[in-house]
């Protein structure tokens, strides 16, 4: 199993979701650990609980005193010092600055007590009851700069009972939250090492290129250009022949470029067994910090190297247009 992801939980108040995340992390096979609990309110009871549970707590001065900019700069610094991989917002009641959101793009989760996209923002239980809905629930989603609107990672439904008021509904939804959040955070933490997820990302990127088809290469998933009979330009080699990598094989310009890249960036590139000899460069994709824009660039390069002239001509014409 790869090292556990280091999670920072950000709270403003009671921290019952934080507690659920901490207790779930105590399972031997949990793919994350809570490496930091912090927030915008040094008096939050959640911080005292985390401390009692021997989790590292950092009490930052409340932004009211220090100013919002200083607060988020100080927070970012603590996150870096603690080598945090993922942030879990758990009742963190601050609007985040855009640059902070961008810096944690894809690596910051939030829990919201409604079935998003229904009832964004505050007072969700009141809104659900006022709308006369028969179900409510909880959602874990990625954080983007638009409030409660990032990719939904998981949801759980909760029945609204006749006679429910805000408090009784909130109480039941909270039970569901405590089940949902640790499970979805665990899934998200293992995602970078999950071969199916990696294949989906590559598939999504390859389909941005023209005339791409699926094909296998000795049983491995591959992508070809120019129809079914077209040339393979990308292959996934999932821990082939004892290799550690879940690798994406793409066509480099030749052995010089390959050895250069492998020597200077061995954490990213490798010489794949058997395939290396025919010009395939291996990119290690089972890493936490894969730059998917760079993977997309390599796929496009490899596509160009393998595409028939009629397609590369079309591509050039489109670029000149
Ligand atoms: C939860 O209902 C959560 O969904 C919302 O704020 C509340 C926090 O509660 N974002 P707690 O501090 O986790 O107990």
Written description of the protein model:
With 321 residues, this protein is of the alpha+beta class. The protein folds into 2 domains: 5-192, Formyl transferase, N-terminal domain (Rossmann fold, 3-Layer(aba) Sandwich); 195-320, Alpha-Beta Complex (Aspartate Aminotransferase, domain 1). It has helices spanning 16-25, 45-52, 63-66, 68-81, 98-103, 124-130, 166-190, 195-206, 255-264, 292-306, 309-320; strands spanning 5-11, 32-39, 86-89, 108-112, 135-142, 152-159, 212-217, 220-225, 231-238, 246-251, 269-270, 280-284. The strands form 2 sheets. Strands 2-1-3-4-5-6 form a 6-stranded mixed β-sheet, with helices on one face. The relative contact order is 0.09.
Radius of gyration: 23 Å
Mean pLDDT across the residues is 94
The sequence of SSEs as H and E is EHEHHHEHEHEEHHEEEEHEEHH
Q: Level of helix content?
A: 25-40%
The CATH architecture classification of the largest domain is 3-Layer(aba) Sandwich
Give the CATH H-level superfamily of the largest domain: Formyl transferase, N-terminal domain
Q: Give the end-to-end Cα distance, rounded to a whole number of Å.
A: 49 Å
Which small-molecule ligands are present, each listed once? Answer: 5-O-phosphono-beta-D-ribofuranosylamine
